[in-house]
Specification:
The chain contains 18 helices and 16 strands. Helix content is 47%, strand content 20%. The structure holds ligand C2E and magnesium ion (2 copies). The site of one magnesium ion has 4 residues, from loops.
């Protein structure tokens, strides 16, 4: 049994309408029929999922050949209503009787194998193996947990300071989600954001984070601290939701936070994948007064020229480059070039993952205006974060260094003495 799932079909359906989607599915079916013998069966299970049943195979290698044929045939462009569309397919394979003795199990295991390929590369095929089931079960359990976690509000938002290297002030906080799992303790986003994206749960979770971050930022203002911005990460799926702008407006209104204090972080991939509608959405957000940052800049494939077409305010240079900036010439050159170009384009530059005072000095001399990283503070709870905030009526900082150091409680977590001294000097 071959389980075939089309890559990127949803996008066509969403953007071109269902009747175009239907035409496309008919064309897919025709091409699939062209890949097999008359005696084989091609079926559409639903949505963009098809199956093929191959009978009486002399050798399992032949299955791979059919899978390759299927993938190649679906890779060719589809012309519908005068427009070309590019799809692709992920194919999972289960073989009777080893991978299942009845139809239901065979289809399910082929589906599991399909999922393996989808998860890693798309546009390829994969034979089912036993340990996939174990992984599939673990994933299902995690998904179930995640659903319960969202319903039960098991998530919290931590905040990491971002510092203006010239004024020495904390100018914004990045909101980073954590999962307070009842049995497994605190879980970091790299353990669950991917799954939340695959299952669509990121939309709900992301909305929750946005609301919490806006409320918290407003609460700091209400408590008499000088206002800072909050930066919220948006995932691809959220960006593709038709009601993103309304959702964001609602979060601002219900928290009573002025839009100038909200910054949204998107990756290059999100913007390039949705190039057509990205500009429209970003223009609307910009009109509301919200700032847009490109996160992890330098790791994607975009050029600044492409991004220049979009209303972007800020580039966050990926940690990977900052890591090597002191001892890897290439990294230093890349950062220098990004800073120089970014500044020419009037963008604010933020270096991510700054851990050493020497990195800070170098970045400052290159003209990078903002830094974020363990040197200043790792992400911490909202309560702890208030140590980075300035009360609105603070006496003059220069003259009151002693008073200031008394006001700064000993930071918890990973902020070492050395870093603390530098951070205080900057503050
Ligand atoms: P990101 O947006 O690039 O966030 C920065 C990550 O770098 C954070 O990891 C932060 O803890 C880490 N970091 C900051 N400074 C340093 C440093 O000096 N050294 C090192 N080694 N690491 C540093 P975290 O919190 O684990 O988040 C990982 C990623 O998860 C984020 O990367 C972001 O892509 C995603 N994420 C987190 N919260 C959300 C959310 O609410 N929504 C969405 N869609 N994604 C989120
Ligand atoms: Mg980020
Ligand atoms: Mg980042």
């Amino acid at each position: 049994v071959l389980f075939i799932d089309l890559d990127d079909f949803k996008k066509v359906n969403d953007t071109m309408g269902h009747s175009t989607g239907d035409d496309l599915l008919r064309e897919v079916a025709a091409r699939l029929r062209g890949c097999v013998r008359k005696s084989d069966t091609v079926a559409r299970l639903g949505g963009d999922e098809f199956t093929i049943v191959l009978l009486d195979l002399k050798a399992p290698e032949l299955i791979a050949r059919v899978a390759e044929k299927v993938i190649a045939s679906l890779q060719k462009p589809f012309t519908v209503e005068g427009r070309d569309f590019y799809l692709g397919a992920s194919v999972g394979i289960a073989i009777y009787p080893d991978d299942g003795e009845d139809a239901e199990l065979l289809v399910r295991n082929a589906d599991t194998a399909m999922y393996e390929i989808k998860k890693t590369s798309k546009n390829g095929y994969c034979f089912y193996t036993g340990d996939m089931s174990a992984r599939a079960i673990a994933r299902m359990e995690l998904e179930d947990d995640l659903r319960k976690g969202i319903a039960g509000e098991q998530f919290e938002v931590h905040y990491q300071p971002c510092v203006d290297v010239y004024s020495g002030r904390v100018v914004s906080a990045e909101a980073l989600v954590r999962w307070r799992h009842p049995e497994r303790g605190l879980i970091m986003p790299d353990q669950f954001i991917g799954l939340a994206e695959e299952t669509g749960l990121i939309v709900e979770l992301g909305q929750w984070v946005l609301n919490a971050a806006c409320r918290q930022t407003r609460a700091w203002q209400n408590a008499g601290y000088e206002p800072i911005s909050v930066a919220v990460n948006l995932s691809m799926l959220q960006f593709e939701q038709g009601d993103l702008v309304e959702m964001i407006m609602e979060a601002l209104v219900s928290s009573n936070l002025h839009s100038r204090w909200l910054e949204l972080e998107l990756t290059e991939g999100v913007l390039l994948k949705n190039a057509d509608n990205a500009k429209e959405v970003l223009d609307q957000l910009r009109m509301l007064g919200i700032r847009i940052a490109i996160d992890d800049f330098g790791t994607g494939y975009s050029s600044l020229i492409q991004l220049k077409q979009l209303p972007i305010d800020c580039l966050k240079i990926d940690r990977e480059f900052i890591d090597g900036i002191l001892d890897d010439n290439d990294d230093a050159t890349v950062v220098e070039a990004i800073v120089a170009l970014g500044r020419k384009l009037n963008l604010t530059l933020v270096a991510e993952g700054v851990e050493e005072p020497e990195q800070l000095e170098l970045l400052r001399s290159l003209g990078c205006q903002r830094c974020q990283g363990y040197l200043f503070g790792s992400p911490c709870s909202a309560e702890h974060f208030s140590r980075f905030l300035t009360p609105s009526h603070l006496p003059d900082l220069e003259e009151n260094e002693e008073a200031l150091s008394e006001q700064l409680p000993s930071p918890a977590g990973t902020l070492g003495d050395h870093a603390l001294i530098t951070a205080r000097r900057i503050l």
